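Design job #97: recover the sequence.
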């Protein structure tokens, strides 16, 4: 099947505020779209997550894969359709970035451990217990489904938004940029992942 890297909507595009609708039909056309969504996520090395509304399709679909990060507990490639957080605990502040907000990163508080119920790309019900970086990535992508960006969730308005100077040179090498989420426990120097 023909694959395409899709165009990413960039803040302040008002469409990013739109709430997405649940997926009701599972067919080849959905599989094709999910393949292209994943391709778009992987277009930059280090891309760890993407949500359908970021490419202008307002359906509740996210793709997350944090397995490229060393020593982080993960489920590998995750396609979540109509995801719902079933249980949650703990609270941790970490630095997040977003393909739709290429010029900034910000500090955001997220649940540290979550149980997520979701359908896979074939419509089968799944449940995932996850924590830390992977849980953060899933919560970030799920926010897109409700029209929220990390900018809407900054720990506070002052002192928690950072120009992405560190990445500027990197993005010359990696056109298009990519999703980057780092936690506070990692040093600023390590943000090149
Ligand atoms: Zn994002």
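Job complete. Output follows.
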């Amino acid at each position: 099947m023909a694959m395409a890297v899709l165009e990413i909507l960039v803040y302040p595009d008002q469409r990013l505020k739109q709430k997405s609708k649940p997926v009701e039909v599972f067919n080849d056309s959905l599989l094709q779209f999910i393949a292209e969504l994943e391709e778009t996520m992987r277009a930059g090395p280090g891309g760890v997550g993407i949500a359908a509304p970021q490419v202008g399709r307002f359906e509740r679909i996210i793709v997350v894969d944090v397995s490229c990060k060393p020593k982080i507990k993960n489920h590998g490639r995750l396609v979540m359709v109509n995801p719902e957080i079933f249980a949650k605990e703990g609270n941790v502040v970490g630095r997040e970035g977003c393909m739709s907000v290429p010029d900034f990163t910000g500090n955001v508080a997220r649940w540290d451990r979550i149980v997520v119920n979701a359908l896979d790309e074939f419509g089968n019900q799944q449940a995932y217990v996850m924590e830390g970086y992977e849980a953060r990535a899933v919560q970030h992508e799920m926010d897109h489904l409700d029209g929220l960006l990390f900018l809407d969730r900054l720990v506070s308005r002052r002192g928690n938004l950072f120009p992405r100077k560190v990445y500027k040179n990197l993005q010359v090498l990696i056109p298009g940029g990519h999703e980057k989420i780092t936690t506070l426990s990692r040093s600023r120097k390590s943000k090149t992942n």
